[in-house]
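Protein: HAD-IC family P-type ATPase
Species: Bifidobacterium santillanense
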Amino acid sequence: MSNLPEISETGLTADEVDARIAAGAVNRVKSSTSRSVGDIVRANVFTLFNGIILAAMVMVLATGSWKDAVFGFVIIINTGIGIVTELRAKHTLDRLSILVASDYLVRREGRDVEVPHDGIVMDDLLWIRSGEQVPADADVVASWGLELDESMLTGESRTVRKKEGDDVYSGSTAVSGMALVKVSAVGAQSYAATLTAKAKVYRKTVSDLNKGINTILKFMTFLVVPLCVLLILSQIRTVGGWSVAIATGQWRQAVVSAVAGVVGMIPEGLVLLTSLNFAVAAMRLARHDTLVQELESVETLARVDCLNLDKTGTITDGGIAFDRIVMLGESGGRQSAAEHEILQALYDLANEEQPNGTGKAVLAGLGERGYGAGAIAVRVPFSSARKWSAIVRADSASGPANGRGRVPKRGTVWYMGAPEVILSAIDGDHADVIDQVNAYAKAGDRVLLIARADFPDDAPVHADEGRQPQTYSDRFVDSPFLSQVTTPVALVLCSERIRPDAERTLAWFREQGVRCRIISGDNPVTVGAIARKVRLTGDREPSYMDARELPDDVNELGRILEDVDVIGRVLPDQKKLIVDALHARDYTVAMTGDGVNDALAIKEADLGIAMGNAAPATKAVAQVVLVDSKFSHLPDVVARGRQVMANMERVAGLFLVKTVYSALISLGVVLTQIPYPYLPRHITYIGALTIGMPAFILALAPNTRRYIPGFLGRVVRFALPGGIATALSVLIAAWTLPGIMGWNIFASTADLARLRATEAIILFVMGVFVLARVARPLNGWRGALVAVFASAGVIGMLIPFVSRFFALIIPTGSTLVATLIALAGSAVIFAVCLFAVPALTHTMLDRRLHR
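Structure follows.
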């Protein structure tokens, strides 16, 4: 603490600190880094699907037939997958968001004392030193070259010099210098806290897949209750009415039969497979340092057609790189210094005690070329008021000691700073240099000017009346100035470090038809130049505009955005407005970012993507976090989402076929008052072999097809032919086989068991037909897949334990003949429906369109 400047302020007393703590004016804020455990559990447990399946399972268990209730385990599996996967994501995110518990130096009762982050109170005098994050909003009391990085709050990547009276905001970081500040807002009242408060409310990701499934479930909810009642009534009648059913206990079988129809209509396997695939995709992405916080966001990845990129932290890594110097040749009739001499001077100019970001970039770049600290006589550090720094290099023996160093008898002054400031203070016409500076700035470079002034041995500069003649060197050291005889010799070009993978990643998105835009708080000209370097728009010149020119009307803004690739000077609220405008034009929007200023837009986007080094509040509202902050992971993220959705659409037809035929069979049973033709356990066995397990394998196959909205309509059109064919096959067999075989299915339990076993075989074969249709083309592993599961179904019937548990009977004798005839008829029905139903569907749609 001894190196702190001497100050007269004493700060708060102990009593004043205690009073503020008692009043709650302490720098403490409740911050949630991610969803709570309770939120995750509730979101996965209390679903419409779980409610329907649980009610059906309770009904079956009430009858005592626990074997027919095994379908209920899908609730536990499905819910467990969702909870475990999202809890793992929460654990990872919380670990990422843990900040180093830093202590800060405050001035109290005339002494400097260290206090923790939440020990700072309102009106505290706080020291902000280089490398520290500002813990609370404050006003600058005194500054010693404090320079802040406020990009997390504003999106502006350039550092900001602070002077007395300026505001500093929590969340910004001191990159050089130091300052004494007076705390003006703490805790929830600070700028960063108020900005992120709007993003606190949790918003569930909208999933087209889950939305389609929920549409089916809602429809089934209205259908299931009355149909279940009708099924129970019809099954009671088949055993002789209520009195007989209650007296004999056959009401239990009536309930089980009714549930068989109800459960078949619920695509529980599709819900489970969706969760499994989302979880597998999340785990695969996690191996590539990509954290998926919500499983549904995997699907959103497939639908993204518009990607808004934050420049700093996404396209660039936030750092500055030294590119080169540009020699200015002759200026003012004097030959410029050799390049080596200028580069050495540049190194020494940047080599301050606490260099800023640009200075560090210069030192790093020249250090790689072998440059090191040279001998200098005097240093004038950079000042935000002057906009330049200087060094004096001696050409002869030094004179007497001075506060800034030893004054040389003769030497050279080297200047480095803002070109417009230095050029305006020296003689000559420098229009050509200014043109060069503007051209490089427009190309996205940060431009500094190096100039030099030589002074002879003790040459007098002026002799004011009543004063002794003053030499050049004396005057410069006493009051640093720009000499009119200074000569500009070179331009220093620095630029933001562009991520090496940025151009390749953007090219991938262009090929995939995803429109990318860069939205930044920086100057639009600078951002446009960076967009040009990374070929944001390919061979086309990217168009850019200033956000201050954007309209507030969402529809008008959306129209303008169609022709804009880069937007600069964007405020946090404008980023959200841009997302809203793109939504209004039916885009599926993804938004990347790392700062607090990005949180609102990330939350509003269909898919929020935060960098691993992002602010905790930003990571909390994002659905996807790139843990290692690598932009190059995004293609993997999108490709994985597309694989899941393209394959899920392929296999969803398998599950909806079951929904269609279960609904039609239930309706046929109610209308014709026959016993239900199969048991819930039959559906469990057949569904696992012809739908569930094959679908999971098919869903993991490679597939990069871009997802197109309209999932539910396409799947329903696919499911209708197979569902109708299966329902007709089962119902025709149930209506005709008892008469042909002489079975009394109303009075004989054994005959009813034979019919149900035969119907189970018909269901299984029809399931294999549908699986073969979904798995096309059947060459290679897809054909083998169908063959393996078809064989597994037959082999399972031959295993005594399996056949007893699932009530499966291998037909023999005349029953076998009848079963083979029924299967042949089923194959014909399937072929007819496969061609007739789609044609009929298209005809009906055409008629509706022409009305």
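Remarks: The first helix runs from residue 14 to 22.
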